[in-house]
Design a protein that fits this description.
Elements (H helix, E strand, L loop, with lengths): L6 E4 L5 H12 L3 E6 L3 H13 L4 E5 L5 H15 L4 E4 L14 H29 L2 E6 L2 H5 L5 H21 L4 E8 L5 H4 L3 H9 L9 H12 L10 E4 L6
Parallel strand pairs: 1-2, 1-4, 2-3, 4-5, 5-6, 6-7
Bound molecules: NADP nicotinamide-adenine-dinucleotide phosphate.
Length: 247
């Protein structure tokens, strides 16, 4: 039980990587704060599944792009558990288009959720972690933030920005026993990639040395590793979990 007595917050835990991560932490004894933007029913299912594994779970609606929502989220978490030891900035969206067709709202929405949302949560979490002199922050970037991708300029900018914020905050907090790292998944089988056609997926698999898409559990495993107490000397790093795609 590596996370017994630890409070772990995971944003956007209704499905995909967030859900797999919540279940993995629950199996390791963590108390959980899980959030959703609109999928209340799915969030309740994740809560029930985590509770069945013995976890205490607070499940809250909170839009990461809204400052007031994030403030209320962290206040409620502290009222319930007294601290937040681990923050997993997982909530994210895509609104793909080639540049010439990309609407300003498509750019703004992705930046607001993926980049500003991570900033707001890191700022709120840091205040709590600094008081306890302990913290592990894991941000979800993407192979697209490392390498770029045609048709995903907005998403790529947001995920490259997450890497910049990760490295900068790691330097600010390293001496306070708070680590900040990023995981950069490749192509993972979730709702986010479900919209791709089978032929596009097959083309993509050809570019993955491992010749398969990743699973949400592949990513959850890495997030837990970075969130462990014993991983505290690792900070400011971007760990690509992509079957070799970014090499
Ligand atoms: P997903 O299946 O689409 O789930 C996204 C989650 O984010 C949902 O729980 C959703 O909640 C939540 N969310 C969306 N907007 C939100 C907001 N404004 N406030 C709070 N929560 C919000 O995504 P995924 O594939 O598991 O991806 C998880 C993370 O990994 C994302 O940051 C993504 O960019 C990153 N990633 C994914 C892949 C991939 O191949 N799947 C690759 C690289 C990086 P609701 O259901 O309530 O809307």
């Amino acid at each position: 039980m590596k996370f017994e007595g630890r409070c772990v917050m995971i944003t956007g835990a209704t499905r995909g990587i967030g859900k797999a991560t919540a279940l993995a932490f629950a199996k390791e004894g963590a108390d959980l704060v899980i959030t959703y933007a609109s999928s209340e029913k799915a969030a309740k299912v994740v809560k029930d599944e985590c509770e069945a594994l013995g976890a205490k779970v607070l499940c809250l609606k909170s839009d990461v792009s809204k400052e007031d929502d994030v403030k209320a989220l962290f206040e409620t978490a502290v009222e319930e558990f007294g601290k937040v030891d681990v923050l997993v900035n997982n909530a994210g969206i895509t609104k793909d288009n080639i540049l010439l067709r990309m609407k300003t709202e498509e750019f703004d929405d992705v930046i607001e959720t993926n980049l500003k949302g991570s900033f707001l949560c890191m700022r709120a979490a840091s205040k709590i972690m600094l008081k306890k002199r302990y913290g592990r922050i894991v941000n979800l970037s993407s192979v697209v933030g490392v390498r770029g991708n045609a048709g995903q300029l907005n998403y790529s900018a947001s995920k490259a920005g997450v890497i910049g914020m990760t490295k900068s905050l790691a330097k600010e907090l390293a001496a306070k026993n708070i680590s900040v790292n990023a995981v950069a998944p490749g192509m993972i089988e979730t709702d986010m990639t479900a919209a791709m056609t089978d032929s596009a997926k097959e083309e993509m698999k050809k570019m993955i040395p491992a010749k398969r898409m990743g699973t949400p559990e592949d990513i959850a495993h890495t997030i837990l590793f970075l969130a462990e107490e014993g991983s505290g000397y690792i900070t400011g790093q971007v760990l690509c979990v992509d079957g070799g795609m970014a090499v």
